[in-house]
Amino acid sequence: MSALSTRNAREEDLPGLTRLLAETCDAAEVVSPALLTESIARGLVRVAQSGGEVVGCAVAERPAPGHVRLSVIAVRDGSRRQGTALRLLAELSRRISELPGPAPLFSAVIEMTDVPVSRLLLKSGFIGTRVMRTSRDPDGICLHYQHKSRVEYIDPDTRYLVPLSARTQLIESLAPRDQAVTSLVSLRGEPAVEITRFEQDDPATLQSGEAAAGIAFSGAILAAITFLLGFAFTSTRFPDDVRLLLIGATFSTVLSLIVYASASGELARIHSNTFGKIMKYGNVLSEYGGVLPFLISLPVTYAEASGDAKTTMVLAALLSAGIGWYEWSEFSIAHRFRKSPSEIVLMAFTAASPLIGAAVVATRTTSWPWTAALACALAARTWLYLYRRGPEAGTAGRRQWQVRE
After folding, report:
1. Which terminal residue of the chain has fewer beta carbons within 10 Å of its beta carbon, N or C?
2. Which sequence spans correspond to the domains of the chain?
């Protein structure tokens, strides 16, 4: 048997896709050639190939900029029960999450009686959110599934099972917007769904807490920078360029406080659509304009206060290691985005800056070049994350709901 491979569909795959759908789908489920052509052009068709022949496909359409709908998923008989459909759907979900602009909702509407496809969707990170009366059968109903784009928590004590045959109970169970289908099981020999209650977040409360935390953090950093700046002005040996670096850090931290206050004002006026963008400005200014310059200046301050070059270098090495670990950890702003080679160079220079600065001051070497390079690196990173970064790295491979312990 030839090895199975998957890829984005191409225009020349259209005849093979048409044959596959005609062989594996009901007449009402066959996607028109026009829709197939449009979906292929948009990169919304994944195919599985074996021996040069298309043996499976997952096709989606984009009827609106913010919505992608799964049209059909089909696998030829000889390639079933090998995880082909699961693989195609996972790759198509990842492809949709990486589309330019805000990530669209990825949904599917499946006949309630189509148990295999429902099971496939639930294994692929979808949940059933509501019942829809759009079945081709006058007496039938459909389930609306949507792919979870972020992690949410479920209440483990509120789950219960409903047989698919109990249509009225299923409709009532999915009426509340916090209830959803999360798995498909067998109950007394017949298919049943598990209904789960998702914990509902209060966006206003969460955003208010985030703004308050940003203000408190920036306020604490501003106090620390101000103290260090006071020491810098009282010392006659403190390098002027490092004083300027601290003045710039003070200015940037004050700006972040203003930005956080603006975010609170937007929240108070219910202009929540701009809250995330405003908070991004505050976070970037606080980290690259306030926190990092403050930490990098600590070895210089210690060198001036103690005059002990050896201890200064040890402190600087520890700070460089700590900043390097933070830059590559999941807590940093840089970790949220895919890194280019130029960004990696900037990150490495930022992490090494305490060691370089301490060596410059300890050896009484001119420190202007180091300070200027550091200021340019931090300014470049600020510009990158505010104006040049695309969407944050995806969450592919993560289960998008978890049990609250």
Report:
1. C
2. 32-197, 203-388
Please give the Cα distance from 215 to 108 (Å, whole number): 42
Contact 350, 377 (CB under 8 A): yes
Residue 389 CA to residue 337 CA, distance in Å, equals 7
Evaluate if residue 88 carries a pLDDT over 90.
yes
The CATH class of the 32-197 domain is alpha beta
Rounded to two decimals, the pTM is 0.62
Task: Render pLDDT for 132-187 as a digit per residue (tens, 0 to 9).
Answer: 988 888 878 899 999 987 777 777 788 899 998 898 999 999 998 889 999 999 99
Measured CA to CA, the distance from residue 321 to residue 85 in angstroms comes to: 45
DSSP string computed for 267-319: HHTT-GGGHHHHHHHHHHIIIIIIIHHHHHHHHHHHHHHH--HHHHHHHHHHH
Structure tokens at 303: 């060198």
329 class by beta-carbon count within 10 Å (0-12 exposed, 13-18 middle, 19+ buried):
exposed
